[in-house]
UniProtKB/TrEMBL annotation, chain A:
SUPFAM superfamilies: Acyl-CoA dehydrogenase C-terminal domain-like (SSF47203), Acyl-CoA dehydrogenase NM domain-like (SSF56645)
All copies of domain Acyl-CoA dehydrogenase/oxidase C-terminal, residue ranges: 218-347
Residues of the Acyl-CoA dehydrogenase/oxidase N-terminal domain: 7-118
Key word Membrane present: no
Keywords for this protein: FAD, Flavoprotein, Oxidoreductase
Family of the protein in this entry: Belongs to the acyl-CoA dehydrogenase family.
Species of the source: Sphingopyxis macrogoltabida
Top-level lineage group: Bacteria
Cofactor(s) of this protein: FAD
Stated name of the protein: Acyl-CoA dehydrogenase
From TrEMBL, chain B:
Sections of the chain in a coiled coil: none
Native source species: Sphingopyxis macrogoltabida
Pfam families registered for this protein in UniProt: Acyl-CoA_dh_1, Acyl-CoA_dh_M, Acyl-CoA_dh_N
Source organism, top-level taxon: Bacteria
Keyword terms: FAD, Flavoprotein, Oxidoreductase
Protein name per the record: Acyl-CoA dehydrogenase
């Protein structure tokens, strides 16, 4: 089972690429690395104006009723342009959690704001290496949350967070307002992602789902986010491949373009293979939303996209030689993003285990 | 059900009915001669059922259907281990080229029908000891001889030449011009005087490929299938014939399920190997790679069905799949430890890890080596420059040997 993009979807890809190329430049992205607590506001304004925040949400709550395929196309372009704001994925994950598991009241309360982008959402499940910990770092007592979540993507700016917590004797998925939560910005190698530690203390929270279903729900939300992130990774990898190619046909050494040397051309051809495998897995995974093999497809997309982006950015720098490691050229923006995206939404180790669990029917 | 799905269902049912007579179990223990005899009967049965020459024109005895039906049938057929590979080259390249470039249409039709029914086999005489990746560097020559030509030289890696009735061949007819321009394309009778076929035994123990020697082999000018000096273009047309063939994300080795089973059944340091992180990582990464290839193939099929041209990413299949099959097979043997020494040279490469492993190097070379494929991707898809070629524009007989 696979899909071909239709005309409308192709138009989304073309238009989002055009808009992002016009509005996001590396000159704006570089300074963001040197301070913490700032992100690319122009990108977020663009995302809101273009309706990307509303894209995959239901019409009944001010959404556009499109799906993962369309949002994936935009994420791919955002990855190419290093959009510099984490919210496209985190907002979507938080909104989907409320849409899929919330009550009518909860949906009415949160979804329109998340759809317009006026409310910024975060998803906070992980505890260090564990994307879905056996013992979550937060405890829900009554309707109050306590504990510290570390390294929450978009955590510094988010208005609400969907969290995975210990409920009374069972895990629980809940949504909390962050207005009174103490936040500490993390000095990161990719500062514009607004990573923060969140300290919950008697914080009001509303339950979305409890018990075994909460863990399944959390995995499903992670998988949805992973597919979006994988598209972003594939887009970044594709950009690195093109930058490497363009340099290899222009830069000359020993009387010929360096792209004529097999050590260079084969390296770029290998990246092409990784990018295309990742892209194919991403498109497939996006088209499997709602099907029984969705988690498996999401894991495969995540694994191949992580490998593609890391390898492409690593090799692109190597192909450039000395100029590749300068601050100004900005290749490091991709190197940084490749690694930050590799950790967000569950690391490679997590998704490898999820995939093998699915294939074998047993957990390690 | 779409037309194509209906076609698939019908083909699958027919193939299923052939399993008792021609399937894996029926072929077990047969000598190669007996297997080939069985293969000829199977090919005839395919022809009679309308599954031979599926996408070929009806005027030559084909079925006149589309490429999609052909790939669909091949995909279903691959599941059963039928002896169809003896005809793979013959029906894959030489016969389609013959249909396209053969002058005597009545004679061509006779050959096509015989080949489709498994009565005649054709081989493709391209590679030489000095011209493999560099096809245009070949040295076998044809000189004018009366009204025809006289061939002298040697070909190598010729699949099924020892069973072939005819072959298509590229030879040098003019050494005084740059290498691509001095080649001409012919067909030859493999039983003609002066043709000697010598099988080459490969690492896996089988001898599907041959050296073929030509000593004063005389052919008429009516054997010529290209203008004199225009053989390279026809050779390239031959190699381009089937860009989208039925592919296999397992690299024509075992399916990943078999590795998962092995890992479940094998104990490593007192625990099932499936619990070992190194094993799990390889399973996960192989799955991701294979599912990517499958998605690329599925999209290519969908594009063809929609009347569009698939993207170039279909060219990744062999490069990526065979290489990873080689590594996974190594790991599977490692995993068996001292139980891993056993080797049965009749075992199937698709079911046996050792057989898969020992034959994998052949897969990485035949049909374009990894390096050749990477060059093709780099140059044709990504627009990177060609390698430095010192023989460019130099007359063939002035290229330093």
């Amino acid at each position: 089972m696979s899909i071909l993009y239709d005309e409308g979807q192709q138009a989304i890809a073309t238009e989002s690429r055009r808009v992002l190329e016009a509005r996001v430049s590396k000159e704006e992205l570089l300074p963001l690395l040197e301070t913490s607590g700032r992100y690319h506001e122009g990108y977020w304004t663009t995302a809101k104006e273009q309706g990307w925040t509303a894209l995959a949400l239901p019409e009944a709550y001010s959404g556009l009723d499109l799906g993962l395929v369309e949002l994936g196309l935009i994420a791919h372009q955002a990855g190419r342009s290093l959009s510099g704001a984490p919210f496209l994925t985190s907002n979507f994950g938080a909104a989907k959690a409320i849409e899929l598991y919330g009550t009518e009241d909860q949906k009415a309360k949160w979804l329109p704001g998340l759809a317009s982008g006026e409310t910024i959402g975060a998803v906070a499940f992980a505890s260090g290496a564990n994307a879905l910990p056996a013992r979550p770092a937060l405890t829900l007592t009554g309707e109050r949350l306590d504990g510290v979540m570390t390294g929450v993507s978009a955590g510094l700016a988010a208005d609400i967070a969907v969290v995975f917590a210990n409920g009374p004797g069972m895990p629980v998925l809940a949504v909390a307002e962050l207005a009174d939560v103490k936040r500490t910005a993390i000095a990161s190698f990719d500062n514009s992602r607004l990573y923060a530690d969140l300290e919950f203390a008697d914080t009001p929270a509303e339950t979305l789902v409890t018990g075994g279903a909460a863990r399944e729900a959390a995995l499903h939300i992670l998988a949805l986010q992973a597919v979006i992130t994988a598209h972003e990774q594939a887009g970044g990898a594709e950009a690195m491949m093109e930058i490497a190619r363009d340099y290899a046909v222009t830069r000359r050494a020993f009387g010929q373009p360096i792209g004529a040397f097999q050590s260079i051309k084969h390296r770029i051809a290998e990246i092409y293979g990784l990018v295309e495998l990742a892209r194919a897995n991403c498109i497939h995974a996006a088209s499997r939303e709602g099907q029984s093999d969705f988690i498996t497809a999401a894991a495969a997309a995540r694994i191949s996209a992580t490998e593609a982006y890391d390898t492409a950015s690593r090799d692109c720098v190597q192909i450039h030689g000395g100029i590749g490691v300068t601050w100004e050229l900005g290749l490091h923006l991709h190197t940084r993003r490749a690694r930050s995206l590799a950790i967000e939404q569950g690391n490679l180790l997590f998704w490898e285990d999820v995939l093998v669990d699915r294939l074998t029917g047993e957990a390690a | 059900m779409s037309d194509l799905e209906a076609y698939r269902a019908k083909a699958a049912a027919w193939l299923e009915s052939m399993v008792p007579t021609y399937g894996k179990a029926a072929r077990k223990g047969l000598s190669e001669a007996d297997d080939l005899a069985l293969a000829r009967k199977y090919q005839k049965a395919k022809f009679d059922a309308g599954y031979a020459g599926i996408n070929w024109p009806t005027e030559f005895g084909g079925q006149g259907k589309g490429h999609l039906e052909k790939v669909t049938f091949d995909t279903e057929e691959m599941k059963h281990g039928f002896p169809s590979f003896y005809f793979g080259i013959s029906l894959g390249m030489p016969i389609p080229v013959l249909m396209q470039f053969g002058e005597d249409k009545a004679w061509v039709k006779e050959r096509v029908l015989k080949a489709l029914q498994g009565e005649e086999i054709w081989c493709q005489l391209f590679s030489e000891p000095a011209g493999g990746s560099d096809l245009a560097g070949l040295r076998t020559k044809a000189e004018p001889d009366g009204n025809g030509w006289k061939i002298n030289g040697q070909k190598v890696w010729t699949s099924w030449a020892h069973y072939s009735d005819y072959g298509v061949i590229v030879v040098r007819t003019d050494p005084n011009v740059p290498k691509h321009k001095g080649l001409t394309y012919f067909w030859v009778d493999m039983k003609a005087p002066g043709v000697t076929v010598r099988p080459i035994k490969l690492v896996g123990g089988d001898s599907h490929v041959n050296e073929v020697f030509f000593d004063d082999v005389k052919i008429g000018d009516d054997h010529r299938m290209s203008p004199v000096g225009g053989g390279f273009a026809v050779a390239i047309a031959t190699l381009m014939i089937e860009r989208y063939v039925a592919t296999d994300s397992a690299g024509f080795g075992p399916h990943l399920d078999l590795f998962v089973e092995l890992a479940k059944d094998t104990e490593l340091n007192g625990k099932p190997a499936i619990e070992d992180g190194r094993i799990r990582q390889q399973i996960a990464r192989n799955y991701a790679m294979r599912s990517g290839l499958q998605s690329i193939t599925a999209r290519a099929m969908a594009m063809m069905q929609a009347g569009m041209t698939p993207g170039p990413e279909g060219s990744l299949n062999k490069l990526v799949a065979v290489r990873s099959r080689q590594k996974l097979s190594e790991l599977a043997i490692d995993l068996q430890g001292s139980d891993g020494f056993t080797y049965d040279d009749h075992a199937s490469q698709k079911e046996d890890w050792t057989s898969s492993w020992i034959n994998a190097p052949t897969g990485r070379i035949a049909g374009g080596s990894d390096e050749t494929l990477l060059n093709t991707i780099a140059e044709k898809i990504l627009g990177l420059p060609q390698d430095h070629r010192p023989d460019k524009g130099v007359p063939f007989n002035q290229i330093p040997a």
